[in-house]
Amino acid sequence: MLADVLREKRCFKLICGAENEDENEVERLVTIYSLAGCTMFDLSANVKIVDAAKRGLERSGIKNDRYLCVSVGTKGDSHISKAVINPENCIKCGLCKRVCPQNTIAENENSYEVNLSRCIGCSKCHNICPQNTIEMKYEIKDFKKILPPLIDAGIDCIEFHISTDDDEEIFTKWEYIKEIFSGSLSICINRSKCSDEVIINRLKKMIEGMPPYSITVQADGIPMSGGIDNYNSTLQAIAMADIIEKSNLPVNILISGGTNSKSTELAKLCQVNIDGISMGSYARKLIKDYIKREDFFENKEVFNEALNLAKNLVNISLSNLM
Question: How many CB atoms sit inside 10 A of residue 322's CB?
């Protein structure tokens, strides 16, 4: 059970990208990281993506201790945004294409264009554009429409991202999630919109009446910033986890947002007690060049090189938790 994985500190969660709707990429990521020892997969709230992840688990041949989680969010959450380029203002400088971690921006005749199925809303293109021609658009999903089919598809966990200062939206959606879903629940939170005091008080209210350690809190440092493998990149994730741990709330704690191969080591050095790690940008980047190959599944040498890289990352990360 997922509760056992968390209690035994064996939780490595691969974040495939909350808005990543590339079925082929998700299937390949899940295949490799399942074989590497990853126990949980965070997915876009899309039945087709859940099915792609299931195909990845089938390919890996491992079903025990492998859990599928979907991420949903609130208005303004970067995890539910997509980049859109205004072709009229684009000067085709190419900066957006160069910084995109998903290789989702392509050049066309008059400008650049975003492949929305692969965009994960990281905002790197938006931030670097000298013309301010790239807009981040938020796709507000109706939980009453999207969640029931996902539950029927057999997900194990729902993660609720609450990067907003709108308490009414948060608690309305949270009550609905608890009402319709009996599986594991996770709350992802960071300090981008709220003070530490507000965060802890909000979490206290959200877990009120729930059994101890039935809720996981994902301490989000700087969302989608983990492409660099150093201590500084992961510092804010550890700081966020430290705040939650010192609140003495009866929750499981995962770290995310800037996580990389140094993250659990830094948590250990700082004596911050965490139950697992969620990793997206760095874990995907590590094997990106392998999984994009057309012969990925057929070429055993390529497949095994990717697998060894993923195994090493998972083993290093979990070794500091034991």
Answer: 9
C-alpha 251/C-alpha 248 separation (Å) is 8
Secondary structure in 3-state letters for the chain: CHHHHHHCCCEEEEECCCCCCCHHHHHHHHHHHHHHCCCEEEEECCHHHHHHHHHHHHHHCCCCCCEEEEEEECCCCHHHEEEEECCCCCCCCCHHHHHCCCCCEEECCCCEEECCCCCCCCCHHHHHCCCCCEEEEECCCCHHHHHHHHHHHCCCEEEEECCCCCHHHHHHHHHHHHHHCCCEEEEEECCCCCCHHHHHHHHHHHHCCCCCCCEEEEEECCCCCCCCCCHHHHHHHHHHHHHHHHCCCCCEEEEECCCCCCHHHHHHHCCCCCCEEEECHHHHHHHHHHHCCCCCCCCHHHHHHHHHHHHHHHHHHHHCCC
Token pair, residue 136, equals 């981040």
Which tokens belong to 95? 């900066």
User: Minimal CA–CA distance to 267: which of 246, 244, 237?
Assistant: 237
Q: Give the tokens for residue 189.
A: 């939170």
Cα separation, 277 vs 279, whole angstroms: 6
Tokens of 18: 């909350």
pLDDT tens-digit map of 113-164: 888 777 877 788 888 888 888 888 777 778 999 999 999 999 999 999 987 7
